[in-house]
Specification:
globular; 7 strands; about 240 residues; Class I SAM-dependent methyltransferase; Methyltransf_11; Rossmann fold; SAM-dependent_MTases_sf; methyltransferase activity; transferase; alpha/beta
Amino acid sequence: MRRSVRLFRAFLVEQTDPGRFYGELAGDTVRQLERYCPLDNKTVLDIGGGQGHLAAAVRARGGGYHLVEPDPDAIGLGRDGVPPGTVVADGYWLPFRAGIADICVCSNVLEHVPDPAGLLDELVRVTRPGGLVYVSFTNWYSPWGGHETSPWHYFGGARAARRYARRHGRPPKNEYRRTLFPVHIGQTLRLARRQPGARLADALPRYYPRPARVLLRVPGLRELLTWNLLLILRKDEPGAVS
């Protein structure tokens, strides 16, 4: 519970002190990953990782880190500059051979792409057999589903965007159905369970204590209360039945 309180306190200053929030989140991500495998001598691809806040946390555990970010303007804006090993590329067409990564991390990206299934396919492709795919996203009906237009997204994403533009004199950074898409818990769980070449190893609300995973068993309620869903997929070994 202390962890959840700490994360939500950091979340409250995301807009005013993003370094604190994303630094806290990076450390927490690494600790979550270590529940499933050690990071020492592992190759980690961070897909859509923005400024690469995860770099220091991974390397402190002895892992190799590579940032993949489609927006060159987002790279290097952090205090540590551009992380070594950074690649500008689209998550749908990663410039890597199959099976290059021990761990593929894709944090808070799924709601920003029009084809979540295609992105998951590519994450699994570049992960080695037996490796992990760590995917999290903010679901649409969570309190933060509309991002900066929240909570008005409950009345419609387009309406919320128009309201934001009227109040602030500019469109929201996350534009509805252009760079922000409604993604739901139920549909994404089904997608993960049917993922070719990988099995769903775990699913839980990312920011809550682990017993809160019981929320995912309750359709409807899980869409409102999960806030952010974390999926852990493990790529099939050769000859395995997914």
